[in-house]
Amino acid sequence: MFRPTAIFVEGETLRPSGGDRWVGPGIQVTWRPSQDAADVSADVSADVEVAASTRVSRIAVRWALPTPPGSLILGDAWERSYGDLQWRHLQPDRFLPWYWLSHDPVTGRTTGMGVDVQPAAFCSWTVDADGVTLWLDVRNGGGPVQLGDRALTAATIRFFTDAGDPWATLEAAVALMSSRLPARPEPAPAVGANNWYYAYGVDFDEKAVLKDATTIVELADGHPVKPFSVVDDGWNPGGPASGGPWDSGTPGLFDDMAGTAAAVKEIGARPGLWFRPLLARTAGPWGIPGRPERTLDPSRPEVLDVVRADLQRFRDWGFELVKHDFSTYDVFGRFGPAMGARLTDDGWQLADPTRTTAEVILDFYRVIRDAAGELVLIGCNTVNHLAAGLVDIQRTGDDTSGRDWERTRRMGVNTLAFRLPQHGRFFTVDADCVPCTPQTPWSLNRRFLDLVARSGTALFVSIDPMARTDETDQDLSAAIRIALDGGDPGGVKPLDWLHNTTPNDWALSGGTTKYGWSEPWGADPAAG
Global pTM? Predict the structure, then answer.
């Protein structure tokens, strides 16, 4: 087992204290072989345990593992990716959330390290020529956690060995990091309609939702697996981004949410619903100190009770899928790229300062999972590594677009290529909707549609009625049926992903296919 070379807390070096312990004033960090080490391999996993009588924010665990010159490095993202996943040359200050891989083009070997899903800390890595550092962020909000008398198992560390090529190594790494999750029953294909990329939360009502349901059922053309029809943001009073309570629809537009769900079922689709659980319409007593007044604090039991009641209400209304959104932004005040290694602003904390932010978010996700019961759960703007095993479907990339194709290329293709190994292991991957709108070129949208359908990942389509033609209907119907069948039997994988952030060359069961993703003038850096 590769024991750490050194451990640091708040910039201070801890001293070895016999065996696998490092100590400093008021803190002890212990390196423990994992409980399942005998089942995996004694040289690939260990737990990092932290006990501290003093407040603690960040712990750095260092290994003297030189990186071969010319290596390419890959990492993940905190929540959704933003077109930024890529293999890149060595950059010592580049932070790599959750896991990293290093590919040596000279030897062809790919190795790496990572942490198991559902850790108790936000975990990122840096890789330089001389070694590797794991950064364990155990803060509570923007301040140090107060662990008291308990010991915190911050993360389980995994070491990845070469599995033959970079793609196979990443697949094996993802399987290893999720090996402690309960076995997932084989999920039904996740296919359906979502109105967001043509309605954008305005100018839609129950009539429009039922038209979407009718469209997706027609395009599924009698397939035995029923598609979903999802009501996205804008159904509740106040319109998009208004917040809860989530107890009624907008008067005059959605007067009877149970009736809407029943009508969708009558058409032959499965009804789905979007909500933003940690935002209230007005300020109340359960906010996060130092954060916007309408943001709810998930460390408060009262907030979790409200979320439980919301999920029960959606079930009572008859919805079969719920998409919970924006919780990472509502807690941290930042989206993924702005979170960086610091995550959030300094100087604020959650109401319960004795748990790390990761622990609070995990408990929040577990409450949603338990309250959802048999509902299919989609996580959006949820923390990828924490949501694994607690959502059925995960939006892995930032929004595609019904207004600008460049955004779909940049966000959708990138996340599908680089997070596809997480599919079926962490959750069902959702690279976001395929738009069919007058503002975006169908010649390019249809390529993304075809790839997503063949990948076996979630396929949701946003079909503007004004954009429907015989050609679009034929393409949509063919792809929807492929997706409802479970995708390409042999799976798909990108072939040029080592040097292309939006791979063009893909392996399919029938051979290889080249997808062109750009407009005639190329990718527009000012668009998207």
Answer: 0.96
